[in-house]
Amino acid sequence: MIEFFQALADPDNRFLTYAMAMGGLASIAFGIIGTFVTIKRISYLAGAISHSVFGGIGLALYLQVKMGISWFDPILGAVLAAVVSALVVGLVSIHAKEREDTIIGTLWAVGMACGILFIDKTPGYFSLSSYLFGDILLISHRDLVFVICLDVLIVGVVVLFFNRFFGVCFDNEFTLLRGINTTFFYLFLLVLTALTVVLLVRIVGIVLVIALLTIPPAIAGFYARRLWQMMLYSVLLCALFTWTGLGISYSLALSSGPTIIVLCGTVYLVLLAANKLVFTHNK
Amino acid sequence: METDISLKNVSFAYKKQPILENVTLSITHREFASIVGPNGGGKTTLLKLLLGLIHPDKGDIQVLGTPPEKARERIGYMPQYAHLDMNFPATVLDVVLMGRLKKSTFWFSKKDRDQAQKAIKTVDMTGFTHTGFNELSGGQKQRVLIARALCGRPDILLLDEPTANVDHETEENLFSILQELNRKMTILVVSHDLGFVSKYVKTVICVNRQVVFHPTTLVEGTMIKDIYYGDLKMVRHDHRCRGPLP
User: Fold this and answer.
1) How far is it, in rounded angstroms, from Cα B136 to Cα B129?
2) B191 with B34: CB under 8 angstroms?
């Protein structure tokens, strides 16, 4: 671990400093949005959104390399695909009552498959693994600007509409009866989730997104009594896991995304088991 | 007497299955009525029509002299709590404050908090203001949801099975609170325990595709049996009801 801190202090290792800054800043967005995803029980929707992101990345690479549309870079493709799929998935979950999970499962798989097909038709070799499992060490200055903007947006929106989001998550019907446009706020929440997912894909990749979005809030849920407390604890836990995971992955030469996920997954399961034991013991 | 709620020839069908047929009903101000009927008979549908959450296929509904959607702000609604997430991180005050949500403001004011505290006091939950909602018993949760319905200072209170899954003592307690509130507002309670509620309410509204309104005179056991198709076991015959209106 000591060599990790030495490496961090070394000005040549700019990428490590970026990675640590990215981890900390991204945790603000993850903790807040992750809390909503967990309490509204829409992690399945978040999964569908994250896999459709791959379709957007594939499309962008195809347009860029094959069609020569140079401004259409993968980040733009990812953001576009995430927002469109958030709206589609949201409308499906509101209107298609019985078939909801089937339709969302289909969108999930089709989004992913489209991405692969686009990449098949794009000349050149692309390392899929950094999209699938993330690579926080490839973070650039531009990504940092992007995450700061997203943090400002999310914190601002949540402070302004906290009570409305609370209502939509806890009791949608009652909130609607109080004159609030619940459909709008639900879709708004999904769009924010989509933007956060795009950011997460850079760090832990498409496949592992759900874990980093839901595990810190799940742990926070053990100890928080109020919604804002759950958000705060989630942000702190998320930063802690990302930083510790980065340190471990650097020291042991492991992939950063999976290291972070295994770390927070293990902590969650241990705490869950411990809580169960204490609970049954007290009974 | 002022009429709070009126339905004229209202029909509603779900997937071509008629739920309510040709219902005409009028409820006066400060009525305290229980809506009873078998499962699937249309009790919840009737409530949802009154809240404007669904619209009738035929007929006209007026609540407080306007279409239901416009009257929402003046209706206090308590849903069945079974559909709420029991692990949601919220205190009693957080839940009750939802009743003060408004289109025009983003944050809760001092006045909103005061009204919420007052509503919590009305249902005897003052000691639990900062307790987690998920730490409460079933009966306490019901009381909190009544407080939430109350704190918008409604003219009409609609409660969907407020005494489901609570013991008898809690049930008595809840209904005496409602009886007290009835001095100021109209109350409609969905219940499947006719025998018990008839002790408190002024009127029984039987819903099973048709709606039969029983104010003030003796109810005939056979009539309630007709409504329930004979599957109701316990019926008290000493409450004030009479046969169906023409």
Assistant:
1) 11
2) yes
Taking CB atoms and an 8 Å limit, are A178 and B95 in contact across chains? no
Domain covering B3-83+155-228: architecture: 3-Layer(aba) Sandwich (3.40)
What CATH number corresponds to the domain at position A25?
1.10.3470.10
8 Å CB contact between B157 and B172 = no
Distance in angstroms (rounded) separating the CA atoms of residues A268 and A239:
15
Handedness of CA A122, A127, A129, A131 (dihedral sign): negative
Helix (H) or strand (E) holding B14: strand B3-14
Find chain B residues with C-beta within 8 A of A230's C-beta: 89
Report CB contact under 8 Å: B101, A226: no
Chain A residue with CA closest to B135: the answer is: A225
**CB contacts < 8 A (A, B):** 76
d(CA A246, CA A4): 9
pLDDT at B237: 35
Long-range contacts of residues A145-154, Cβ cutoff 8 Å, at least 24 apart: A146/A75, A146/A199, A147/A22, A147/A25, A147/A26, A147/A29, A147/A199, A148/A25, A150/A29, A150/A195, A150/A196, A150/A199, A151/A25, A151/A28, A151/A29, A153/A192, A153/A195, A154/A28, A154/A29, A154/A32, A154/A33, A154/A192, A154/A196
pLDDT averaged over 10-residue windows placed end to end, chain B, 246 residues:
86 86 88 84 88 91 91 90 83 94 90 94 91 89 91 91 79 86 91 71 81 57 50 39 40
- Residue B86 φ then ψ, to 5°: -80, -5
Position A73 pLDDT exceeds 50: yes
Instruction: Tell me the residue range of the domain where A257 lies.
Output: 2-282
Where do the structural domains in chain B lie, given as residue ranges? 3-83+155-228
Burial (CB count within 10 angstroms: exposed 0-12, middle 13-18, buried 19+), residue A240: middle
Q: Cβ contacts (< 8 Å) between B63 and chain A: which residues? A: none
Q: Are A166 and B72 a contacting pair at CB < 8 A?
A: no
Q: Which two structure tokens, joined as six digits, stand for B8? A: 């004229």
* Listed residue (A5, A34, A31, A33) closest to A20, CA to CA: A5
In residues, how long is chain A? 283
DSSP class of residue A98 equals T
What is the ipTM score, two decimals?
A: 0.85
